Structure formats: structure tokens, C-alpha cells
Amino acid sequence: MTEQRFKTRRFYDMYLEFHEKIFETHVKCMQRLIAVLPFQQLNQIDIAERINQQKPILHASNLIIGDKELEDIFDDIFPIVKEFSYRQKESLLRLEELNDRRKISIKELVIAQVFGDKQKFSEIAEKYDVPATLLQRIFEFVASPFLELCAEFFTKKLSSYDWTQPFCPICGNKPSMARVNDQANTRFLWCRFCDTNWQFQDMVCPFCDCHDLKTIKIIFPSDRKPFRIDACDSCKNYVKTVDELIADKKFNITVSYVETLYLDFLAKHCGYQLPNHFKFYLELV
Ligand SMILES: [Zn+2]
Ligand SMILES: [Zn+2]
After folding, report:
1. Which pLDDT does position 226 carry in this prediction?
2. pLDDT tens digits, residue range 167-186?
3. What is the pLDDT of residues 6-39, one digit of tens each?
4. Is the pLDDT of residue 4 over 90?
5. Residue 235 alpha carbon to ligand 1 centre in Å
6. What totals of helices (H) and strands (E) does the chain contain, helices first?
């Protein structure tokens, strides 16, 4: 095995092991949150009003999670990031110290990450010399268990409403993956923040709303594999896509998203924009 292939293999093994630990921790955090959070309070949100205005259900003022619960999740996630970090040890120590000295508010950063307040991260990154990509990814991992539980709570209720936007109806984030079924003629987008799926038009770019068929490029890395890249030449973004007719019936989209990192590198190689959060892995090892 050449040196480069050995390094690549090692990177993938670590990447998968890291995610396995994050998944296991998320499950534990979700079990804990179910027991303590007042989910019935979410019934007070007027879903019809939000959806009719084509706005996502959650926003900063209706989150039912407190600082304490988010700090506990941070305390579970942070050691995993630390364990797998080789190049960011000093930044992580600074972040740990900031947290110990209560210089940062976990809840504020979770809100900033979920609702796309990039300014907040640039300020902290600059002030305390901790990379913004590292901060954003950590706070996404901290937010996910709560967001997934909210998504579970709302999914059934959502099915009676019409949602046609290219962003998640629960948390408002852009899709990270899609699944298509040519027999049923459906395309569902998937949000990695809260694990929500929603139906969206086929062959339309969810990033720039481009409808021109000539700008959508489908890249199949290999025959009979269910995974492909649907890329847009207009905005240079892409969505990794699972073909349900070829995929194993029991495929899990969260796992598929992690396992298909090679598609992200292929998309980058083809000139498309690698989503910012992947830089986190490249900076980590
Ligand atoms: Zn979402
Ligand atoms: Zn586009």
C-alpha cells in the first residue's frame, strides 16, 4: 500500500469511528432529553401559521431547551472531538477553558449555528483564536439531539401541510442529501441537523432555485451503486443523492451521508463547492 493510500485509509477509519461515537452519544442524549424536556409545550406553536407563511417551525424564541441540558450535551460531545483531534488540540483547550470560565453561552452558540448566524462565530473565532469551522461543527453536534426530537414531534403533524421550500420545514437549514424514486416519481430532501425529510421538485437546484435542466449535472461514480451527485453548474453546489430503486430497503440516510464522504471529495474534484462543515475533518486530522 502506498503512503498516500495508507493515509487515506487511516483518515476514513478515524472518520467513521468518530461518527459512530457521535451517533451513540446522540442516542444517549436523546434518551435523557425525552425524560426532562416539556415537549407538550411545542403544541403552543401555531404550525399552520408558520407553514402557511413558508417559515420553518422552530426559531430562536420557541426552543424549549435550557442552558443546563445543552451544557450536559456539550460535556458529552466535547471529549469525543478532543479524542479525535490531532491538529486542533490547542484550539480545543482554549474552547474548554472558555466554557469552564463561562465565557461563552452554549445556548447562544447553538442558536447561532442552527439559525445561520455566521457573524457570531467569526466574532468568537477572532476574539479567542478558535477556528469558526471547529466551533460551528461542535455546536451542530450539540444541537442535533434536541432538533431530532423536535422533528420527531412535528413530522406527523407536518404531513397535513404543503411545504414546497428548498429548506427544512423544522429548522430551516438547507438539505444535505436527497433520495429519489423514479417509479414513484418522487424526490425527498434531507436535513442533517434534525433528520427531517420533505418532498421537493425533481431537477431543480435547492440552493439557487435554478430550473434549467442543462445546468443540472448528475455524476454517477460507479454502476449499480445507489449513490450519486446531483450538481448545479449555475451555483456550483451539489446534493448527494440516493436512488431508492437500487438502494438496500433498510438504508439509513444519516449513515449513508457519513459513509459517502468519497462523493464529497469527488464533487470537490469536479469543481463544486465542498460544504463548509467538511473542512472541520480536514482541519482535525
Ligand atoms: Zn432541519
Ligand atoms: Zn444551483
Report:
1. 94
2. 999 999 999 999 999 999 99
3. 888 999 999 999 999 999 999 999 999 999 999 9
4. no
5. 22
6. 10, 6
Fold for domain 177-284? FdhE-like fold (3.90.1670)
Return the domain boundaries, the chain.
Answer: 3-158, 177-284
Sequential DSSP letters for 236-275: --EEEEEETTTS-TT--HHHHHHHTHHHHHHHHHTTPPPP
Distance 6 CA to ligand 1 centre (A): 36
Distance 216 CA to ligand 2 centre (A): 8
- The answer for residues whose C-beta is within 8 angstroms of residue 78's C-beta and 6 or more apart is 92, 95, 96, 99, 138
User: Can you tell me which residue has the cell 468518530?
Assistant: 18
Neighbours of ion ligand 2 (CB under 5 A): 205, 207-208, 210, 232, 234-235
pTM comes to 0.94
- Centroid of ligand 2 to alpha carbon of 178 (angstroms): 15
**Grid coordinates belonging to 248:** 438496500
CA 87 to centroid of chain Cα atoms: 23
**Cα 210 to ligand 2 centre (Å):** 6
With DSSP H G I counted as helix, E B as strand and the rest as coil, what are the percentages for the chain, rounded to 5?
Answer: 55, 10, 35
> If you average pLDDT over residues 210-234, what whole number do you get?
92
pLDDT tens readout for residues 110-164: 999 999 999 999 999 999 999 999 999 999 999 999 999 999 999 989 988 999 9
- Cα(193) to ligand 1 centroid in Å equals 5
